[in-house]
Hints:
- By secondary structure, this protein is mainly α.
- The protein has a domain at about 80-350: Alkaline Phosphatase, subunit A, CATH 3.40.720.
- The protein contains 39 helices and ten strands.
- Helix 6 packs across helix 15 (about 320-330).
- The radius of gyration is 31 Å and the shape is globular.
- InterPro entries: Alkaline_phosphatase_core_sf, Phosphodiest/P_Trfase, PIG-G_N, PIGG/GPI7, PIGG/GPI7_C.
- One of its GO terms (molecular function) is CP2 mannose-ethanolamine phosphotransferase activity.
Amino acid sequence: MTFMKKINCITTNYHHGSIILIYIWFVALFAIALFLYGFFPVKYHEVPAATLNDIPKSINNIKINSEYLYKPLVQKVVFMVIDALRWDFINDAHKLDVMSFTRNSIINNLAGLSQVKVNAPTVTMPRVKAMTSGAVSSFIDVVLNFGKSTVTTDNVLLQAKNHYHNIIFYGDDTWLKLYPNIFNRFDGTTSFFVSDYTEVDHNVTRHLNDELHKNNDWSIMILHYLGLDHIGHVYGPQSPLVKIKLNEMDEVIRKIALKIQEWNANGVSSLFIVCGDHGMKNSGGHGGATPEETLVPLVAFGLNNTPNIRDNFVQIEQVDIATTLAVILGVPIPSSSIGSVSLNMINNLSPSNKLFILYYNAKCIFAHYQKLSDYQTQSGYLKYLRAIEMHSEWLNKSRDSFNEIDLIINQYKVAMNEMKDLLVQSMIHYNVTIMSAAIILMGHVVVMSLKCDHYKTFSRRKFEFWWISGIGLWLLLNFIFHLDDNDALFTLINNRLALMILIIFTINCYWCAKTSINITKNSILIYSLPIILYTASLSSSSFIEEEHQTWYFFWPTILLHQLFLNIKKIKLFRLRNVNFIDTVTTIVKIFFLLVMHRVLRRWNSTGNKFAHLPDINTWLKEDELNILMSLTVIIALILLVAVGVIVSNAKYRKINLVFYLIISSCIYLHHASSNAVIKPLFYPESSGINEVQIFWIAVMGFIIYSSVCNNIISHLTSSQSSILCIIIQLWIMISALLHRPHNIILLPMQLITCKIMCDSLKSNSNKEMKFYVNYCVGNVFYFYQGNSNSLATVDVAAGYVGLQSFILPITTIFICINTFSAPILAYLMTLHDEMTPKEIDRTVGEKIFLLNRLFTFFKFLPLSVYTIIITIMRYHLFVWSVFSPKLLYEAMYSTVLFITMFTMQTFLSFTKNKSYLN
């Protein structure tokens, strides 16, 4: 009776603690969202579209004939975007032996080559917006990239449409979603099926013959080819397929360029521009800010370009493209544009035309610049006035003073560049009030997660201390973060949002006042030393870029420590009751893990500095027959099937084996459909959709069969260990489907690693140590997979496995599962290890609760400190290329982990523990 009372008391306490923990997760997610809202504010500055009235009629009261000085330079424009066309694909084409026509045209000055600098994030949607509107896209556009909302700001396409240009489009349907009512004729291709790199381009090219030779009703044709980008995502830039695709694009360029030449010869002035929207990282992805991602070529056919000088090409910003196109078309420069016209494209104009265009361009930039509070004190303003003064003086002279023209042009260029640079800086608006409030809430989460299982009696004095100190710290943070305007403390937060923050803040203070924190020798804080060291490393951009090196240091350190302890046991086995055979076996297993670590750390090159180095993944892909890749996938699937059979109940192993074989076959055939592995003999051509559909049917069958066999549905009497085992198997099945073929082997390797470390630590009663080891395993395998803190390593292709159309929720879930597969699997394996009834005085609910509390603390401590670091570093040179992507990763990782923990907490805590009852 006493025993049952003790159990009931423990159960009541931890059900109470579980509710508090769920509240902690809610506050954590709210604080994350709040900080992101303050750090990435979504701001849209709507300005009226430009009109012909905006084109100047005078310069310093000197009347000019703007209709003569500013008029269309061409009658037809073909604008061809090759997705992920890197700078070196054109500049080093002679080394790659590709694009012979384009290369020879540049060498012979039949085409002009410019280097375009692209801003991060290097994903398609913000890059298209930059090229057409001339405005700098917000970093949060990388998230909005999936939604592709309609562009409402002024842009060169809208200006062309308003001035009676007929625009046609073929290619990436991103353009159609951004500009739904612009094109007179179009055919969009989806960018989401990245395994397709043939049809996606053929659907564009098949329209060219009609548009170039039959239809004469258009003045602007836009083409956007996706095949090169898709090859990069799946196979990387070193794949032989890249060379084939570049030569295919070269043939398209040749066909259009020859027609442009013919039109110009026949008196129809025409221009053909080829450029990339962004580049491609050496790993094949994009989204970051490496030179491979941010430098792209722009090749112009049909204009009298400045002669190309090797290694000294004209450099422009991507936002300059919109302004340049507007000038060439003779339409008003978009009111949203801060770009500068490319002088290389108007090289054949008279001095009067050039200077007027520069004046008009500078006037447009100044319209934005003068909205800055202190613009009159900046050197850009003074240089702008000086350029106008020099221009007007030149107009008042005899016009023979051509020696002054270069000085005036240079003065305009310098003034526009300085104004543009300051404008870009001013567009970064941080809501420090909200950010500091989020930091305070995150601090509460860390404190509450330290000891949310035992609370003392409420103390009003402690509550007042937490409340007053919290408000004081918030004010101090605002002061430290240079928020000098006192009114801003109250005006930058929406009233409803402020009320919600205040309510949550007050509730947090109540629970913090009841929290008992005892820092002892065996406290969590002692075992969080590696986490503290990791957290400190986040203040360095280099450590963030190369974070995998941190975990690659921690992991072998743990293994060597365990190896040392077991070797020490051998020396003492005669003096103590130590099983010699078991100890030697453990030593061999740990040594195996060390060897495996050395191999797997070279499985996928990651990070920034060494991501370009050859890795095992590259070596497997270089085998044109796919023999090695096929063997790797087969071995991985066999290991997964073997593990599944071993953990299955002996009574149901045969039926389970059938499910495992069907699911494994579907995974293999899905990859075979894209020629990633060897296709079975006589297997028909397939898009891979049917195989994935059969996979899901088999998975559903496995769930139903397992549920019936374990009496989960009928009686709810199965042990949590069995339930969790099924959940782990489902997670592995889905991860194996979404992983790249060479990464499937990581799943059984992680299971083996967790099992070896679990056996090695079974004599260790310290739960924090066991937790940290599994936490480290999850992070190490996360980087083995090729992940990093760059958005370029997000495997977008995983989001569209088996889909025939874009479905945002499913795509998001798939990408999250694939990206965070290893950390979540490590959590589930840790939970499974705790499910075995080893402690008679602890219920299953308590075990789940304690583990979730540890994960919450260890995950949120680095994130809460990192928000302080990134707030301090918000004007750092690498804030958008390094610190911001890391913030997005941590926010998403925390969200996925908290949702998983909440699911496990609610699902497993309310089922009976069959093992315990027996």
